[in-house]
Automatic annotation (TrEMBL):
The lineage of its organism: Eukaryota, Fungi, Dikarya, Ascomycota, Pezizomycotina. InterPro entries: Fungal_Metabolite_Diox, Phytyl_CoA_dOase-like. Pfam families: PhyH. Signal peptide: none annotated. This is Phytanoyl-CoA dioxygenase family protein. It comes from Aureobasidium namibiae CBS 147.97.
Length: 321
């Protein structure tokens, strides 16, 4: 008889995410081997989050970071009119999708797509490219936490339908505001767990008594995430942006892959000369795009939405069955 294995529901699962160590052979082949693909897929199903470590070249992260740090301060200077989410220490910040900045290894990473495809089905839809920046403390203002929330704050399917591909541009830790994550909450949660009406600063939050209950079962954590990693997170997972106590802006890019059957209608604005690159490097994704001139991107990318101005719902939603 070999029925002695503990079921995962009875095991004491860690608060820290599974980190999959990517090998140089996998980078060169642009493909995970079966071992790492299985680890990543099972971790994403079980925990709602997995880290792929040592995937992206630091030189590309550094180049993008210098542009985005400069932009973060411009957005911060907009004050009350800036694109902050919940509090002014955390802003929604888009990278410019122009030839100089659209690095395929960051925005269309084949290993990330292999993992999202494993969970969502072939050719996920890429419909969102943005970022969240945790800003260093401002004069006289104590840095704040966001309330614990999910980004899927609407009536959504119970199966995995959307996955966020996060790319931090620097090492991320408690000091500079590594995102707090509540592993395993992606498939236990429902709309009933949310409190607060949708406002333009995204006032969604998980009810306090549910947080306290969940903390006893599996506490949250703010993981150390090494620069060069990709963090893959189920859109339904409970999480919170945390204060950045350091002197460095912490930019974390966010690309969302939706399941091919989930008819999300958003589009990403790209410079039109990127078409060959998107078609070639993004062949495993359906990149829902709006093509415009490079000048239009440069004129508009710092005046985009934030909070609830994005619609993660789908067209022609099926009634519950
Ligand atoms: O910046 C972060 O760490 C998370 C931000 C976030 O979750 C949000 O703004 O919805
Ligand atoms: Fe969020």
């Amino acid at each position: 008889m070999r029925f002695g294995g503990k079921s995962s529901s009875r095991r004491n699962l860690s608060s820290s995410p599974v980190t999959v160590h990517i090998t140089s052979q996998e980078i060169a082949a642009r493909k995970l081997g079966w071992h790492n693909l299985e680890m990543a897929t099972r971790a994403l199903h079980r925990d709602g989050l997995v880290v792929l470590q040592d995937v992206i070249e630091h030189s590309k992260l550094d180049a993008l970071n210098s542009t985005m740090i400069r932009d973060a301060y411009k957005l911060q200077a907009l004050g009350d009119d800036g694109p902050f989410n919940y509090n002014k220490g955390n802003i929604q910040q888009d990278p410019p999708m122009t030839r100089a900045h659209c690095y395929p290894s960051i925005f269309l990473n084949p290993l990330a797509t292999q993992v999202t495809t494993s969970v969502l089905g072939p050719k996920p839809r890429l419909t969102f490219v943005s970022g969240n920046s945790a800003l260093p403390p401002m004069n006289g203002i104590e840095p704040q936490s966001q309330p614990v929330h999910t980004d899927a704050d609407f009536d959504h399917p119970e199966s995995p339908f959307a996955v966020v591909v996060n790319v931090p541009l620097i090492d991320m830790d408690v000091e500079n505001g590594s995102t707090e994550v509540w592993l395993g909450t992606h498939n236990t949660t429902s709309l009933a767990a949310h409190e607060g009406k949708q406002g333009d600063r995204a006032s969604d939050r998980i009810a306090k008594h549910l947080l306290e209950q969940r903390r006893q079962e599996r506490a949250p954590c703010q993981p150390y995430v090494k620069k060069g990693s990709i963090v893959i997170r189920d859109l339904r997972l409970w999480h919170a942006g945390k204060p950045n106590f350091s002197n460095d802006v912490r930019v974390m890019l966010a690309m969302i892959h939706f399941a091919p059957w989930y008819r999300n209608a958003m589009t990403v604005e790209f410079s039109e000369d990127l078409t060959p690159l998107l078609d070639h490097e993004g062949a495993d994704l359906q990149i829902q795009r709006t093509l415009v001139s490079e000048q239009t991107i440069l004129d508009g990318y710092l005046s985009r939405g934030y909070g609830n101005s994005y619609d993660f719902n789908q067209k022609s939603r099926l009634e519950d069955f």
